[in-house]
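Long-time lurker. I teach an intro course on protein structure, and each term I like to show students one example going from raw sequence to a predicted 3D structure in token notation. This year I'd like something fresh instead of my usual example. Would anyone be willing to generate the tokens for the chain below so I can use it in lecture? Attribution to the forum is fine with me.
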Amino acid sequence: MATELARRFVVDRIRSTIGWVIGLGLYTGLIVSFFPSIRDSQSYEAALEDYPDALKEFFGGDAGFQLTTGPGFINAQLFAFMVPLLLAVVAIGYGAALGGEQQSGLIDLVLANPIRRRRVIVERAVAMLATIFLLAFTVLLVVTVLGRMVDLGIDFSRLAAATVATVLVVMVHGLVALAVAGATGSRSVAVGSATVIFAAGYLLNALSGLVGWLEPMRVLSPYYHAVGPLPLLEGWALPNLAVLVALCFLVLAAGVVLFERRDLV
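-- Reply from a regular --
Happy to contribute to a lecture. Here you go:
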């Protein structure tokens, strides 16, 4: 079957995926349930005005730090950092697994069949996308359902925009792990490389709002293209999403080339 490898990859990890779905759903529900107490607290709103600018930049800047509004609260508590971070952990782990399979020799059993290496990379990417989309959809569903109960006032189109942006930036880093794993055959190197790039992008996006000379460089951060335009507050930022899509395809193509050139003997 054309997608047998992707299906097998998803099935092999179905138990951990279910665990992540449950965990993310509970965590998201807990965050949303806090909103009424924040919204109705005048003292909390006054305290927010005294928060340092540096802290605000790490949660989407001053515009995204409006915690007493539904969109601002969900942006700061979920989409500005925690949801991308948690999904990146899953994606990077999925991508780096190829390195572990090379170290254990398990990949040799797969490649002993008439299967091209590029198919291994592409179908793993498809499986990764399906898993990340499921986890992101869980967050979207919980925010949508519970949001109506606590009157978050979030437009569904903007919530969808933030979800898509999160999926794309997470996929960029998951594909980096996959490409590095294919090139080096090392799980630890793949995890380390993708994690460093994720952290560097996050810090560049945050610090560029505080350090003037870093401002022009923030466009180099994949994280900026996902959270910088504040899709949860401003809606779809199609040019930024196009950049993330292009990065996904470029990294995937690099992964295919690197894995096909690697000597597995």
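Some talking points for your students: DSSP finds 13 helices and no strands in the chain. The radius of gyration is 20 Å.
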